[in-house]
Structures
1.
Amino acid sequence: MANEGVRLTQHIATASMCTPSRAAFLTGRYQARSGMSTTGSFRVTFWQASTSGLPEEEVTFAELAKQAGYKTALLGKWHLGEHSSFWSRDYKKHPLNQGYDQFYGPPLGNYKDFGEEGDSTFGSAAPHLFTALRVAIIIVLLTLIIAKKKGLIKMKMCALLCFITFIPLLYIYFITAHFKIVNSFILRDKEVVEQPVRLNGLTGRIVNEAVEFLRNRSVDEEPFLLHVAWLHVHTFLDPSQKFKGRSRHGRYGDCVEEMDWGTGKILEALDKYGFSNNTVVYFTSDHGAHLEEFGMKGQVDGGSNGIYKGGKTHGTFDGGIRVPGIIKWPKNIKAGTTVDEMTSHMDIYYLIAMVTGTQVSADRQIDGKNILKLIKGEESISPHEFLFHYCTDEIHAVRYRPRTGSITWKLAFREPDYLENKTRCRFSCSCDHARLLDPPVLYNLIMDPQENQPIRSDLNEETKQITDKIITSVANHLKSIEPVENQFSVKNAMWLPQLQECCNFPYCTCIDRKYADPESHMDMDV
């Protein structure tokens, strides 16, 4: 793909976590504008049966394409919510209400809990969580029983204390210890067709859905927007039998090879149906590799960010936010092109608007830029002068591209609170506990892409001027952020049993009949 299009070497996600990054990608707007970034522990949507997600009033690039008469489909991961109502499933945040005509995939995503090894996301983040919850539940329950028997409290008081102590502890234990039960399922449009998800062979099923979609467009000759959101290489890593053991890099490498195979099959289908020359193909990742992700047997399951410092969940450093960026469009982009200027996920919103002939929404701030001339080689400087690097709702660093010269600067206000003598955290890096840098430090990202040579921002007159200009840009940017509902508040983020999906109540188990054999499409002939 890179050989046939343009490679963006300084392509930036707006966050080092998937939910906020995807929100910005779909809307062309920093996630702070839609309430998809916040302080505290919740940085992604953890439970599908909640009201957390992309607000329906946001306009996605799928909605732009649909306005222009395009057929649209999302295949794979969504992770931007389903419902707005506290009381019932209203699907206002579902893909079908955000511009997509078709949806097939897990509405949440993929977690290590979804495998068969007994691993747990919450157990990795807080190893003693489940033991502490069990002990707390037992202590509270025994205390209430003893107090009631000794007549220290009356029945009404016992019931009240149970409600405010025992029930919340039991609730927290259930949703964390049974994460797979409440979150692992696949939707076809709004119908649960599989529960729990069979990760093995899912890549092949997504490919089959994509090829079917393209085949239908070759028949009806309708323009289309196909969004394929792979679950590889997020844990749990479960490559199909065809790819197990093929890579020298363990099951992570096997999954990368399977994803490469799936991407190739979709490109073959574009060729077969005559779409390749005039179809924009974009390939990226929602954030960097997770350096702290290990399997239960010590396998390195999180990947590598190469020379770039940091990774998923980290603020400031490029390892978490500098992502692959490839755009292939034979009719308009010269093959084998490289662009070293800074670009953003959010720019794809503008690109889709231009390709489909629609106007970006005039009633809201769009942070993406028109990069068409840049990727066609008609301009040599990024249309972005500044890019703001969020960690929750705080800006931990800012990229600055002066309008002359060739340097890209980064000013860092905070750094992750790393383990001693390491550039990683225990399981994830907290934004709230990041170290404040006083004074802030500058990095010359052209000369020092590894960010190993911090420059004091008050070193000399030049660095002071650069710093002052960046700080002014932050102030102006923050003035443009209007208050919106926090999508990760406790009210929005909490698991709500009344919103829980279940395909076969009360068993909540089913297999997608279309794919009774999970690997039946791994050797498909496009």
2.
Amino acid sequence: MLLSVKEILESRLLQSAILKTGKEFIADRSVEWVSVIESPVENFVRKNEFVLSTGIGCHEKTEEFMSFVKDVYDSGASAFVIATGRYVFEIPEEVIRFAEEREFVIIELPWEIRFSDVVHEVMTKLNELQRQDRGRSKDIQQYLIQKILEGKTLEHITKYIEQELGHSILICNEKKEVIAGGANANDVFALWKQMKNQTFIRESHHPVFSEIKRLERGGRQLIHLDIHSDADHKGDFFVLTEVGERLNEEQESIAEKAVVAAALWFSRSSAVIKAESRMQNEFLLNLARGEKMSEEHISSHAEFFRYDLELPYICIVGYPAHLKELINRDEVHAQSKKVNLERMSIYIREGMLYAAENIQRQLLFSFENDEVIVFLETSNSVTSDTVHQFLDLVERRFHHLLPGVTFTWGIGKEKDGIWKFSDSFQKAQAALEMGRSQRGTGKRLDFDETQISRLLLSLAINEEVQDITLSTISALVKYDEKRDMDLINTFIAYNYNNGNVSQTAREMNLHRQSLLYRLRKIETLTNLSLEDPDDLFLLNFSIRVWSTGVIKIEDNSALA
């Protein structure tokens, strides 16, 4: 006996759903599975699937939405259920006509109805219809799904599976890290390596995966199944038997059901984490931007995210140079640049949390565009030490997680007060911008260290100061661009060493005569004497004003 779309729509949960097309055919449309998917469809939808979608990315994009519906229709889906009210407010007429012409069932679902409830409803009906044929293993799957929907831990689930199977299992995530299970990880991984050379494979009975791999060595048997969720590989499921024991068909069927449950657990966990992460990110960005929020709103969200806003925090803003290059060359997980950017942001978040835990400090983390925004718990007495200890740990972690990516950091002020997140953020961002323009990539700049920079910035916008600066150093800048002699940095080093030629030559790794030649060239081009204190001050002041980046030398013509 098959489950029809009509029977699903008759459930109490879907009473408020609106059947847009295919009313005459819903009794004949059988449902074998239920899935949640967003564009692109590719090959992730099976025939006779009851497909749920939010239509994210298709808002006011009729052509993209039509293409999405066509792909679902071409896959042979039983029905396409679209949640309206967030990303899609009304199903376009073109889509309705397309579905009607092809006798394709489209259902409009109110946004308030959760997909997890619909999935649960459909799976329950499928279980009820197939219970007699599927025996004890189906009862097990129903139990597992129910426990997952109740929020039980994966450890709780695996213990139950091991009890029903009579064998130990092991569940790993996509990073090959052990998540749950009582099987010996070393034994499992040792046998797993051998699977590539000699493996018995049979087709699975379930659409979640296409094959079951089995390997026998030394009288023991290892069963492996991939765990897929949201069209991605989420992990691996292993069953390890003892010497002389093998899994029978019923036990393999139980293992299949367990993998379905594990996939649902990964999907639920991923959805919860992503939703909470987006909410956290938006809440913290609102605090940083100084958005108007009621005290009740702030308090409730802080309590939900377990943020202690009564602690003193200092804002740190980081810019990851070369992150896009790393994403572009990452071919291992290259489903799309968007997926990779999300993956990289997860790596960055993990590195931040790792560092905060090591120094036993609270951390509030956000990510906007190309900037990482952090509010780190601190105290008045050890602010600087705490921040630099934290950033040292972060950068060591990123060296392994994000090879080739270099961070530049701007540090705000903690003294503004516990609730002054916006002030601290603005100062951290200003310090970051000054650091990037004046010190380059990979540096850290505290807002407290920018007094002179801020003074120079205020002077740099004065037209008379600009004229004096340009008349003093324009010849040096043009000469550096043409001859690549780096006269500007030569003077900076010379002045920093109080005119000590030998010390400057050692620092710049130059021969003494080469340095003297450069210094004479500086005097010639500027008509200033490096022996005259007033000339020295004027040249140093002009270079520092120019280094703010406010003044641009537009004339880049070649020197005579």
3.
Amino acid sequence: MSSTSQPVADPPYRTVAVLLEQHRRRTPEKPAIVDVDDRKSISFEELAGVVDGIGRQLLRRGIKKGERVVLAGTEGLDKLLLWLGIWRIGAVVCPLDVSFVRPAIARTLIDTIAPALVLAPANGDDSICAVTDGPVTRFAAWSSTGADEAAPETLRLDSDDRDDVALPEGATASAPGDIASMCCTSGTTGMPKIVVYDHACYWLNSLDSIDLLGLNVDDRALEYRSFDWYSAQILSLMPFLQLGSTLYVARRFSMSRFADWIKSHRVTVSAGVPTVLNMLLEAPVDTRDGTFATLRAMTCSTAPLSPVQWARFEKHYGIRILNLYGSSEAGWMCGNRTQRRRIGTVGYPVAHIEFDIVDPDGVSCGPDVEGQVVVSGPKLALGLLCADGTIKPIRGAPLFTRDVAARDADGFVRMAARMDDLIIRGGVKIVPQEIEDAMLGHPDVQDVAALGVPDPVYGQESVCFVVPHPGTAPDAEELRAYCRAHLPREKWPKHVYLVASLPRNARSKILRDELRQQWWQIVNTARDLPECE
């Protein structure tokens, strides 16, 4: 299996306690985490004390090393404080957004995780109580002026100077092979999977993030995605923790506030997803006053990024886009770097993974030949948590992903599709993104999704769901004619449907199963949406 070379010497694993003590001693007054929504900032001096305090309170509640703690109903600064406090005592973080899944699914997930404790905001709703029979502890939000009055049983996010409970020695609180977290996938194809990670996963993926983005101690990184996402954890949380840089967090992306976040906080690196880039293109921000002067790069991951939109964004804003490729099971697999990029690709393999693209017989593909992505190495997830409490291993053997890709002669990887999304028309394999990229070249097209639907002659035909730019009214036949001018015959969409929006989950992934349901409704009613033959 081909791979990139390992770094000469990786920094050795260090626990949360050791890292925070190091940062506290070096830069005690430096902002560690800044909540841009609540305008709260915690220094490294304060952070070290609060994390220790949370750890003591968890120990008083009987939480032991290796036990699982569910974090529910919270984002922003409070979530990260609790997260680090759980790690401080060697317990396992299990983030879960109950509102993201149906109650029945949430209950199944919690029953499978079998947590020793569930943490939820004191001012939050009671939805978590409806999906668990286990103990739920409320916590009060952190404040720089000290903890507010709260019920005695409420967990307080303050320094808690009481020393009636001894914390584990900083360097021994956790080891690289200890389980660190259990995180749920988005569940776009069914029941969410519960992926199990050890601290080695986080450490090595963070080193890759630092390399990909060229991060250093002086960086100010903005993260507005949920920390339920493994991507946010390894791109933003862990590099901040390793380096002692400053992390700016928001509960969600805000079109109206994004520019102010960047300018007022002098953000140097920002997370990104294709939906955000498209929004910033649709309603461009005035950059004449140096709004984005400090922002040297934005990442883009989670969902495929159209080369057309990528080029448009960089031309308008002058901000380098670093398109990355990863998964819940493997972490980062490939990425563009600041000084070595190629538009239309996800860059080249990261340092801490063995990466290959193989044919159906498992033989490595040559340059520009599409095949299945297969990876292995020490930073893959430990495994998947099963309903019976066992862990189905992932690490230790090659992981055959469901992704189709090709690698050029220079090593840059171009993603083609998920194997499940391939359209097979009369034996010809069609990658949906090829059709989508062609359609996005039309000036009236804002968003598009192509998918395969049953056909009595060819087995499958492609159809397109198109979101027009506001104020435009493209004709479906016109759009099909545009595709005919830019694609070979077998890739022409048989039907084009104009829609107001595409169904996406919270992680910006297109819900193709929902589009297929829409297509069935259209076929059966022949009246819901305009189409052309």
